[in-house]
Structures are given as C-alpha cells and as structure tokens.
Amino acid sequence: MTSAAELPGQTGINLTSPDNSTNANMPDPLMTATGVYVTVHGHFYQPPRENPYLDAIERQPGAAPFHDWNERIHHECYRPNAFARVLNDQGELVGIVNNYEFLSFNIGPTLISWLERHDVEVYQRILEADRKSCERLHGHGNAIAQVYNHIIMPLANERDKYTQIRWGKADFRSRFKRDPEGMWLAETAVDYPTLEALIKEGIRFIVLAPSQAQRCRLLPTKENPHPEWHEVGGGQIDPTRPYRCYLKPTLSTASSPLSTVCLSPRDGDREIENSTSQFPIPDHQSLPYIDIFFYDGPISRDMGFSDVLYNSGHLAGRIGSAVRGDHRPAQLISVATDGETFGHHKGGTEKTLAYAFTKEFPHRGWTVTNFAHYLNLNPPTWEVELKPVTAWSCAHGVDRWQDNCGCGGGGEWHQQWRRPLRNALNWLRDRLMEVYEEHGRQFFCDPWQARDEYIEVILDRSPHNIHRFLARHQTHKLTNAEQVDALRLLEMQRHALLMFTSCGWFFEEISRPEGTQILRYAARALELAGDVAGVQLEKEFLKRLAIAPSNVDIFRHGGEVYRQLVATSQITFKQVAAHHAIASLFNNHKGEIRNGTSPNNCTVKYSHPYQKRVYCYNVHELDYHLQRLGALTLAVGHLKLISEITWESEHLVFAVLHLGGWDFHCCIQPFEGRRTYSQIKEKLLASLQKASAANTILVMMQLFGDQAFSLENLFAEERHRLMRLLSQETLSRLDQLYTQTYRDNYGVIMAFHRDELPAPQELQVAAEIALSYRCMNTLRALEQDISEPQSSINHILELKAIASEAKHLRCRLNIPEGKQMLEQLILRSLWQLLHDANGTFDADIQRLEKLIDVAYQLNVGISLDRSQELYFSCLYNKILPQSQTTIANSEDIIKHRQLLKLGQKLAVDVSYWLDQMG
C-alpha cells in the first residue's frame, strides 16, 4: 500500500515553489529573498460588546438565530478558517486547512479573549497556527499584535497611547508566548507621535494603506548621500517592498536621536534644512525608525468589494497582475482586509483561501510568507515619509472619529454629534486622570505603571494573581477596603480606555449600538469615580453630551441617548440579588427541587454556605428557606455578593413571592444582623400561612419598603429562560391539542395533498406542530438511550417514519434544538465508534449510518462539519496508519472497508483508498 506520507488529501502541504523543492541549485526562498512572495493579512476584530456591569455579552436579537454577533461571526468566519475545507468536484472533503497557518493576521484582544472562553478548540488552532508558521518561516510567526481596544491612536493622549501598546503587547505575549514584531493600528490611523511610541515599545513594523505615504526615496548611502525624493501622496507608492520611516529631530536638540517632532515630516525637513548652519543633522544611522509595509490598495479593495474571493484562480490572477517585471530579485505582493471578509461578509470564501494557499499560489511558484519573515529576508532599501495624520478609512485624516466629515454618513443624516462626543469624552478622561492620580498615590508606588501592568489582572482575575499584583505595586499593606478602592480605580481607568473604542464614531448616528456601548463604559467609569473619590461628574458630562445632536427625534441629543439607553441599563447589587432570588425558585438547590415538581405544601431549608456565580458576581447563599402553600411560593434568604472584578461585596436579605404564572414580587434590603433577619423570616413565613397573597405582599412592604423587583428586572438571559419554563406547561397542552387535531384530520390532509391542493392552513399548521412535537420527543428519548443498541434503533426508525410523513404532507419541521441534538448525537456516536475499543463495531457503525441518513431525511439543515473534522483527523492519524500494517484476516479487511465507506457517508473523499483495496 501507499505510505501515509504519500497519501493525497493531507492537510500539511509544502508551500515552497515547486521549482525550489525539486532543483537543489535554486536558492530556498524561505532562506534567501528570491522570487515572488505573497502575504494575505486579515485584521480580525470585533468591538467589545460586554455589559460593563456583568462582564458578559447579553443576547443581541439582530444576530438571530445566534446569541450575539460574536457567536454568529464565529460560526461564519473564525471557526471555518480554523477548519477550512478543500473540496473536490463532487463536493467531498479532500483536505482541511488551518488558514491561520498561512494568513498574516492580528486578532483584537477583546475578540481573542472571547474566543478563548467560548471555543477553546478554535483558540488553540489559532495559537498552533502561529507556532507552525514560526517553524516554517524561521522564527517569524504570522500573528502580529494590535493596540488593545481599537482606539484611534493620533487622537489619544500620550499616556493612553503607551497603555494601548503595552496592553496589546502583553495580551499578545500571554497567548503566543513570544514578543510581537509588528502591530496593527486601529483603522491604520497614524501620526509621528504614535510612531515614536511604537518605536520606544520595541515594535519593528506596522502595516498602512498606500494613501498614507507622502514621499519616498532610496536610503542614503556613501555613494549617494542625497537621493531624490519621489512624491507619492496620491497613493502611488510601490507596495511590493518595505520602507524605513525615521523620526525627525527637533530643532532645539537636533543632535539627539531621541527628540522628535510631531509636525508634518516635510515641514520638519524644511526647517532642519534651513537651519543646517546652526544645528548639525544626525546621520540616518542614529535616528530612531520603524519599518512600514503598504498593502496593495486596489487588490485589497477588490477583495472587500468585488467577487474576486469566490474563486482561487481569480484571486491568484488578480494578485499576479501586481507582480512587477523589473527583474528585481524579490518582491512582495501584500493585501489586507477585515478578517471577517473570509466567511462572514463573503460566505464560504475561507475555502478559496485554503485552496489558494495550498494549491494555487505554490503552483505559480509563489512563496506564502508574512511581513516579519519578508522583512528579515529583505530589509528596506527605501525610506518613506508619511502624511501628518491619516487613516485608511477617512479621506480627511482622522476626522471620521471627531468631526462631521461625511465619512460613514447615512444619506441625509449628519455627524455633527461626533465633535461634541469626542470633546465630552476627552473632558471626562482628563477629570478621571486627576481622580486616579490623586487617589492612586495612596495605594500604588507608581499609579501609571500600575495601570500599564493592570493587563496582567485583566488576563487572569484569580484571587492569587490579584493579590500578587497588588503586593507588587502597593505603597503599604492594603486593608480589604483599600484593596477594593485600588481595584475600583484601575477598573475606572480600564473603562476610560474602552470608551474611546473607534466604532463609537464610525457610523452615522450616536444612538447606534456602538455609540451607546462606549457611553456605557463612560457611565461605569463615572460610577467608579464616585464610589472611590466621591466626585460627581455625571451632571457636567450630560451637559456636554447635550451639545451632540442626534438624528433620531426621540433622542434629540447625546444626553437623552445616555438617559434612555445607558442610565437605564446600570446595575446595582440589589438587582443582582433580585436576579438570584427569583431564579432560585426554579433551580436545583442541594438536591431539592424548587421548580414546582415538589408537593404543593413543602419546605426547603438550607443554612450552610452555598455558592454559585451570577455573571461576574459570586453569590454566597448563607441561609435559604422556601415554603410552598397552594399556588403561592415564598423564598427568604441571606446572601453575600462579591464582585470578581473589584472585590466589592454586600450582605443582603431577600424575599421573593411567586403568585403563579408570571407574577413575582421580590424585595431586597441590607443584612442588619442575624436577629433582625430571623424576625423578618418568621413574619414572612407566618404571613404565608394565611394563604393570602395580598397579606404577604403587605408584610413584605412593611419590612422592606416600597421598592420591589419582578420578572422584568431579571437580566435578559435568565428572564428568557424563565419565560420559556413558565410557558412550557401551556405549550405542552397546545402541542397535545394540535396532535389530536392532526390525528383526527389526517385523512383530510392527505386527501388535499393527493389531489395536489393546498391543505387548509389551520390543518397544515396542526400537522407541522404535531410532527415537530413528536420528533422532539423521539430525539430526547434517543439521547437518553443512545448507548442501548435496540432502543436507539427503534427511535431511529421512528424518526425515519416522521421524516417520511413530513415529506408526504409537505411539512417543514421547526426544531432548531433538535438540529443541534442530531449533530451532537452523530458526533458522540462517531467518537465512540472510533475510540471505544470495547464497542460492538458492526452494530455501532450500522446505527451511526442510519442516524446520519435519517438526519438528512428530516430536512432540518443538518451540519456534519464537526463530525467530518473528527473523522478526517482519525483517517490520517489512525485508520490509514493501521492499514499500513499487515491486515491479519478478512474480518480486518471488512472492518477497514466499512470505516472508509463511513467516510463516504460523511462526504469525505476516500475513493483513492477504496480503489486501492479493489
């Protein structure tokens, strides 16, 4: 048989030019700059969407059927690029490529932290891709860093510039275990002070748009000390080579290479040239510099706005058109676009990349590389000067993030709100800096160093790590209260940075989700400043926001946006306690059932500490008492809430009365001692014995006051869960009613369909609901019995009957939960078949094949991507290597053939090996 190394369809493919791999006399393009190099850069980024109080993203209806936009884009882009498919003409899988192994990429810290929490498999594939690219490209990985939360660097003050770079570097280092060589600037926005900060922080290169260059020339040499400058301000710079950009010295200290100007570079040159009689000009060798790559603008634009990405041949042809025929030893064709283009904006184009990287580019003799590797092979021989302040997405410098420049406009809508919003946030930032500096000195030896290193806590909020951080920076051993204030101050500064996230200004209206989100960060920073320092800045902040006119009549201005959309979403400890109290009625608690399945008259008591988590709050339930009497349920408890973020804590007492259905009455107050708490509990339980909801609510108001919480006050996720739970009984009755209607009228519905007439809508709806209900019940039974051979086969046969019935009646099964269950059942069964040596192979594989068949027959849009990935991995790591050994008997041959035929069922191309077996 063929050896595993020779088998077609492998995922690891040598990307070196075919000529280089076969001709020993040719230079290796991975070691010596020779030939055409291609770099495709993806800027992967999502703005932070977390609720500042919960440290979690709440459900976003616009992303349906997914929970939020991160989850949706992950499904369409981030995961598909980690497992990009190469398909044959029959649509069968012939290879899985980790595109991140060949893409140059940056992933925003706020996005990659989400990936780490929500799909650790993809997260690890990204880290592995960087390691493999380091190995392939002699220590130069594909990943580059990003300024932390995507702020427009030229508009940031000096401290924020450095913190953004330092946080971005630290986040990168913690994940990729190396220092970044390059850094992506938000919107590629740059000015000379930003370059200075990057240089001082050890960043070797950045990537810019060609329109950001002003002029360029060959680097001065002894032979040619004054090469001619070429004007390229209209985007005419040659992007096939790297450039070196020097910081210009100031007039007062022209001999010092560390002093730089922040004026236009050309103005600086003129001033320096006019003053040569007074000040010596330092040699280029002594000036600080950073190297710059300019991506190919026209090709990058085509990738984003044309159909060039839908075919790898078209993509390669478009890139090939940029190759210069001027006989230079090496040249780089680099393109850059939003990483989300590959799969989210342009569905399925991750497949185009996979084929281009592994087949199309190598076939043309091109070397796939990244910026750092190419820079190492081919250092700049040209110098560039930049325009003073620029960004790729604004023709007016950086006015898109501070002025009514028209960029990102929405037809008749203006952006007059941009300048007042920028001014208001700048004012708030400066006031918060004063608060931080004044109060931070009480806790930190160097408050600003503590802020720069606070990223260590953001990355790891474990108590041990926080204690270690505080011990390193504290001026003295901090008390518990001082630790809380120290963390509040640092969180205040974190939110003061987050409120400058660029997307808040990017679009046409201040009340969009992006603008609202940055105002939520501002609100949290304001609140923390008040908690620590007692300063009340909100009133003045609202005055400044009121100058920012909205395009939406119901808001009028930014102040109203804040009042209506931001202030209403602020969260207190009492709200967290109310959330826990109401939800506790429906949760399992130390083995006791609280969700109505207990007897009508029952008591649940618990007086030992019980801990759970509500978002970023730890809930220590110190006492809990639940009493049911008929339709009424009353719970009384004492809990301690602790914020994982700031370590703030409160002891609270709660009482919640469920009157049945959707009616809840919940009260919260501070814990005032065990005796007072015991009295409250006794009075409430006594009031319940009268079986009067009105009397119990009256007692609750006497004990707790008028403020009450209801189901509406729960955080959205839990509220939706309880709404579904409370509706379940009604829905079950309706399902049974529709099922009976369907059974009683089955012959009538069939008659309409036999005569090719549309069935009455009421009867057709009854059929669809009844069949969906029956299908879900069967799937739940299958999930429980999947390890029981005969029971599971019976359930699969029932599903087959349901699928046949739905097809004849032209019913579409509406079972999104069932779709996920089917996918998981197939994956679970496949894993057991491939890894469980104690299984009954013949029965297991037959059952799995039947399950796959019925999943397609149910026509619910089944996706077998993860099962394909599992099978494909085992094909090369287990199934085929085993076939290389001597097959002992005909039973082994049959088993091997069955496994390969299973690959066919999963749409994996295994024809080569089946043909080999004859």
UniProtKB/TrEMBL annotation:
Instruction: Please name one Pfam family that this protein belongs to.
Output: DUF3536
Where are the annotated segments for Disordered? Answer: 1-28
Establish whether keyword Hydrolase is in the entry: yes
Composition bias type Polar residues, residue spans: 11-25
- Describe the location of the Glycoside hydrolase family 57 N-terminal domain by residue ranges: 141-365
Q: Name one GO biological process term.
A: carbohydrate metabolic process
User: Which GO-annotated molecular functions does the record name?
Assistant: hydrolase activity
Keywords, A to Z, come to: Carbohydrate metabolism, Hydrolase
Q: Name the protein family.
A: Belongs to the glycosyl hydrolase 57 family.
Q: What is this protein called?
A: Glycoside hydrolase
Q: Which organism is it from?
A: Fischerella muscicola CCMEE 5323
